[in-house]
Amino acid sequence: MKFELASLGTWGSARLIAEFDPESNLVRVDAASYERVRERLGDAMAERFIAYAVAHEGFHAARPDCAEAAAHEFARAETGADRMLFEDALRA
């Protein structure tokens, strides 16, 4: 699955961090979120952030009826990273 950095904005009151586009089989990752993780955690963790987002969104695409927690667990298993690491960096 491919990805690109893009400006995603918000959906309602929630900031979008990543989204899957089924027409292009592409995961868009919010560029500002990526830069924030890179600045706070370094280049290697920023790349892991991308991998986590792609795994998470890919899980949702393949299993749209599964809960959010299942997508987080799948992405953690695929990347070895915990979502809280990234969420903490994005809040800081």
Mean pLDDT: 92
Helix content: 55-70%
- The amount of beta strand, in percent, is 15-25%
Query: What count of domains describes the coordinates?
Result: 1
Strand arrangement, major sheet: 1-5-4
CATH topology: Zincin-like
Give the end-to-end Cα distance, rounded to a whole number of Å. Answer: 30 Å
CATH class: Alpha Beta
Largest sheet: 3 strands, mixed
Q: What class do helices, strands and sheet pairing give?
A: alpha+beta
Instruction: Quickly count the helices.
Output: 4
Estimated radius of gyration: 12 Å
Overall form = globular
Report the strand count. 5
What are the salient characteristics of this protein?
single chain, 92 residues, alpha+beta, Zincin-like, three-stranded mixed sheet, two-stranded antiparallel ribbon, 4 helices, 5 strands, 20% strand
Commentary on this structure:
This protein has 92 residues and is of the alpha+beta class. It has a single domain (2-91), classed as Zincin-like. 57% of the residues lie in helices and 20% in strands. It contains 4 helices and 5 strands. The strands form 2 sheets. A 3-stranded mixed beta sheet has the order 1-5-4. β2 and β3 (14-15) form a beta hairpin. α1 (31-41) packs across α2 (43-62) and α2 crosses α3. The chain is globular.
